[in-house]
Write a structure and sequence with these properties.
nine-stranded mixed beta sheet, about 40% helix, globular
Length: about 325
């Protein structure tokens, strides 16, 4: 166990089907029991602090988003648990599993969080990016939280998400040979994906498991089978399953998930009968609620290489989350 400032951090192990998940239970230093929040990571958040596993994403900087959030929650009197995904960090099992297994693991952890002796019976879930999708599935399949936070949640289709991301790079490539050469040198995958954009989207729309295209005289193939779970259970349908009080939080400068999706998510919750919804759009913040560069070229280049993960967090993060959960879990 470690202690710093006004929180205590303990390593806990959660047994799930076929693996042991290692995580950090962060506790306030005030007398318990306390409300507890489960933090679910999204894409590039294989490790408990919402960092990328270097075996899957070499060269991606650490951002430590969930460590900052967990410490702030503890100071506000809220415990939290965050964990390494199956096969990542200190967790056992196969690395890089598909969405169905990720949802099953998160569901098992949610049951464990609900049974914590340190908990006072009030428990929330927070999901970031794809983690918001997982949160909704867990709420439906295992049980509703007392409050939910959807950070940078995708509403549109998977094909729409890919098109949004690929088009940004495609438009940068179209500026000239210098820009195209830079992208190709620093991220061959981003370069090829941008050129394959129409082929990939068409393959998804037609239900194909692969997309094939000629890039610079060579055949390139993209395996789309890992998208099957999300395609069969599209993001826009998942929010209708969430009955808990919900905060929808998005950055106005998100280059990964369109900011407009936050408004569609709120409408979906309303239409499903959930009228206890708050919307916050953080001006100038990206997907991780960090501050990107001011100039267009640097922003695109840092997105391509994911170096924007090393940018400072917006002054309103994580305070906006802590304020909401403090009100809901009091």
């Amino acid at each position: 166990m470690s202690a710093a400032g006004s929180f205590r951090a303990e390593t806990r192990l959660v047994e799930v089907d076929g693996a042991t998940l290692a995580g950090t239970l962060t506790l306030p230093t005030t007398e318990g029991p306390w409300p507890v929040t489960l933090l679910l990571g999204g894409t590039f958040s294989d490790l408990r602090d919402a960092d990328a596993d270097p075996r899957l994403w070499p060269g991606v900087p650490k951002r430590g988003m969930y460590a900052i959030l967990a410490h702030g929650l503890a100071e506000a009197g809220i415990a939290s648990f965050r964990f390494d995904r199956r096969g990542a960090g200190e967790s056992s099992g196969e690395l890089g599993v598909q969405r169905a297994q990720e949802v099953a693991d998160a569901g098992a952890v949610w049951r464990w969080v609900r049974s914590l002796q340190e908990g006072n019976g009030r428990a929330a879930m927070l999901g970031h990016s794809a983690g918001a999708y997982v949160l909704c599935r867990v709420a439906l399949e295992v049980g509703q939280p007392d409050a939910a936070v959807l950070q940078g949640a995708l509403y549109r289709s998977i094909a729409g998400l890919l098109e949004y991301n690929y088009r940004l790079v495609s438009e940068y490539l179209s500026l000239g040979e210098r820009q195209a050469a830079w992208v190709k040198q620093h991220s061959t995958k981003a370069y090829e994906d941008a050129l394959m954009m129409d082929t990939i989207v068409r393959a998804i729309d037609e239900g194909e498991s692969t997309a094939v295209a000629e890039i610079d005289g060579e055949t390139r193939t993209r395996d789309l089978s890992s998208l099957r779970y999300d395609l069969e259970l599209p993001p826009e349908d998942q929010f209708r399953q969430l009955a808990a009080p919900t905060l929808v939080l998005h950055g106005s400068e998100d280059l990964n998930v369109p900011p407009e999706d936050a408004f569609d998510t709120v409408r979906a919750l309303w239409e499903a009968g959930n009228d206890d919804v708050e919307l916050r759009v953080v001006p100038g913040a990206n997907l991780s609620f960090q501050l990107d560069a001011d100039d267009y070229e640097t922003r695109v280049r840092e997105k391509v290489t994911m170096q924007n993960f090393s940018r400072p967090f917006h002054a309103r993060y994580p305070g906006v989350v802590i304020d909401y959960l403090s009100r809901q879990l009091a």
